[in-house]
Write a structure and sequence with these properties.
Elements (H helix, E strand, L loop, with lengths): L1 E5 L2 H18 L4 E4 L3 H17 L7 E4 L1 E3 L10 H8 L11 E2 L8 H14 L5 E4 L21 E4 L2 H7 L13 E4 L2 H5 L3 E6 L5 H9 L17 E6 L7
The structure holds 2-amino-2-deoxy-6-O-phosphono-alpha-D-glucopyranose.
2-amino-2-deoxy-6-O-phosphono-alpha-D-glucopyranose binds next to helix 2 and helix 5.
């Protein structure tokens, strides 16, 4: 793991956007793994600006998102497909065919999960996987006790995650879908490079366990210690527990 500790969250997001832009310029047909969550919003804003102002070209890029809520169609304003359209895809030159988000409305979610992994493999594999960190240590929706070798599958969300994401559902945790489709920890580890972005003091303790603790299924993010090319971008608040 390599750590880049930035003075504040704004700087951390700028560094993350620069790493992604560099990847696209270096390899225009990059396969990018993308994430959702509040941390990513400003990063996508910066990438959209880089496209508009400096011609960052997404025309040959393929994307695969980490996860999606089971039961939410892509038109639902809390689905991760909707998030991706509004925060990034609608602002850059990608077609829907180039972008992949697990289909939360699939009639057979298990088959959808299997097909998703097949589709990642058929694309040649993910070059750069962007990741956020849940306050319980999850990456994607791989909750504590997810097998380190897990593949894309249907999971039941932790109570802590329902609470953490309740803000997006009018503050009501009972409105958050209880199941999700997520790339597995093993799927994530297959990416050629991983980029974990963590900001804010609320994640300082869990970040310290991810980076310095034992590799354990209790803290799914700690699996990134096993990855050959993992860059962790932090602000000073998130790094304060190291
Ligand atoms: C959701 C996503 C995760 C993301 C997490 C962190 O749970 N499934 O992939 O890492 O949110 O979100 P935030 O950046 O809002 O703290």
């Amino acid at each position: 793991m390599k750590l880049a500790i930035c003075p504040d969250a704004t700087a951390a997001r700028q560094v993350a956007a620069r790493v992604i832009s560099h990847q696209i310029r270096k390899k225009p047909a990059s396969v990018l793994g993308l994430a959702t969550g509040r941390t990513m919003e400003a990063i996508y804003r910066l990438l959209a600006r880089e496209h508009t102002e400096h011609g960052l070209d997404f025309s040959a890029v393929t994307t695969f998102n980490l996860d999606e809520y089971v039961g939410l169609p892509g038109t639902h304003d809390q689905s991760y497909r909707y998030y991706m359209q509004t925060h990034l895809f609608d602002h850059v030159n990608v077609t829907t065919a180039q972008t992949h988000v697990p289909d939360g409305a699939a009639s057979d979610p298990d088959a959808e999960a299997e097909a998703y992994d097949t589709s990642i493999a058929a694309s040649g594999g993910i070059d750069l996987q962007l990741l956020g960190l849940g306050e319980n240590g999850h990456i994607g929706f791989n909750e504590p006790l997810s097998a380190l070798s897990s593949r894309t599958r249907v999971v039941t969300l932790d109570c802590a995650t329902l609470e953490q994401n309740a803000g997006m559902f009018g503050g009501d945790a009972t409105k958050v879908p209880t199941r999700a489709l997520t790339m597995g920890t093993g799927t994530i580890l297959d990416s050629r490079e991983t980029l974990l972005v963590v900001t804010g003091a609320a994640k300082a303790d869990i970040l310290a366990r991810v980076v310095e603790g034992p590799v354990s299924a209790l803290v799914p993010g700690s699996a990134l210690q096993l990855h050959q090319h993992c860059l962790v971008i932090l602000d000073e608040a998130a790094a304060s527990g190291l």
